[in-house]
């Protein structure tokens, strides 16, 4: 499934002094996949664009910390 | 100091939204000079902004000095509330 955040499992040595971090996440923003923006991209309404931080729907890439991940995730209200 | 009426805040929010759309369209058009559709939209919002600014300034007073807004009597562009105080 297309996601804007990818994860990987770093190697955890048995001799690590600290608790190993099993999964690490990194961001892959939309511009990596879109490249040069084609014309007539879908747009937000001005009010939504003001809250979303961008006028173009495909470039909408909000960050939610893991704790608020579940509650918010949709388009700007 | 004067309290601003409620409709000022709605108009100001619309002005901010239109301004943001104009910023986005400007940046887009910088790299897409030939996109007639976006240019039409840009001009539409530019006209829209002129109307909004007139409405906002009729309530709030001049938004910008240096000739970008008409000044009131007495000189009032530096009166409070400033934009960040509104």
Walk me through what this model shows.
The complex is a heterodimer of chains A (77) and B (86). Chain A has helices at 31-34, 46-52; strands spanning 5-8, 24-27. By secondary structure, chain A is low in regular secondary structure. In chain A, strands 1-2 form a two-stranded antiparallel sheet. The longest helix of chain A has 7 residues, at 46-52. The radius of gyration of chain A is 17 Å and the shape is elongated. With 86 residues, chain B is mainly alpha-helical. Chain B has two helices and no strands. In chain B, α1 runs antiparallel to α2. The radius of gyration of chain B is 15 Å and the shape is elongated. The model of chain B has no long low-confidence stretch (mean pLDDT 93). The A-B interface holds A 36-37, 39-40, 46-47, 49-50, 54-56 and B 13-14, 16-18, 20-21, 24-25, 28, 31-32, 35, 37-38, 45.
Overall mean pLDDT score of chain A? 89
Number of strands of chain A: 2
SS strand fraction of chain A: 5-15%
Shape of chain B: elongated
What is the subunit arrangement here?
heterodimer
- Unreliable residue runs of chain B: none
Q: What percent of residues of chain B adopt helix (DSSP H or I)?
A: 55-70%
Mean pLDDT of chain B: 93
Describe the largest sheet of chain A: 2 strands, antiparallel
Q: Figure out the total of helices of chain A.
A: 2
Tell me about the largest β-sheet of chain B. Answer: none
SS summary, helix count of chain B? 2
Low-confidence stretches of chain A: none
Residue share in helices of chain A? 10-25%
């Amino acid at each position: 499934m297309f996601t804007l955040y990818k994860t990987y499992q770093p190697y955890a040595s048995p001799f690590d002094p600290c608790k190993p971090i099993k999964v690490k996440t990194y961001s892959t923003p939309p511009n990596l996949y879109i490249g040069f923006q084609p014309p007539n991209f879908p747009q937000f309404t001005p009010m939504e664009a003001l809250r979303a931080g961008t006028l173009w729907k495909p470039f909408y890439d909000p960050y939610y910390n893991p704790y608020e991940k579940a509650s918010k995730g949709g388009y700007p209200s | 100091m004067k309290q601003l009426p409620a409709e000022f805040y709605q108009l100001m929010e619309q002005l901010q939204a239109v301004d943001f759309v104009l910023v986005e369209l400007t940046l887009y058009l910088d790299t897409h000079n030939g996109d007639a559709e976006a240019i039409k939209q840009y001009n539409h919002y530019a006209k829209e902004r002129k109307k909004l600014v007139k409405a906002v300034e009729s309530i709030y007073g001049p938004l910008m000095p240096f000739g970008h807004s008409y000044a009131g009597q007495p000189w009032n562009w530096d009166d409070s509330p400033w934009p960040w105080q509104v």
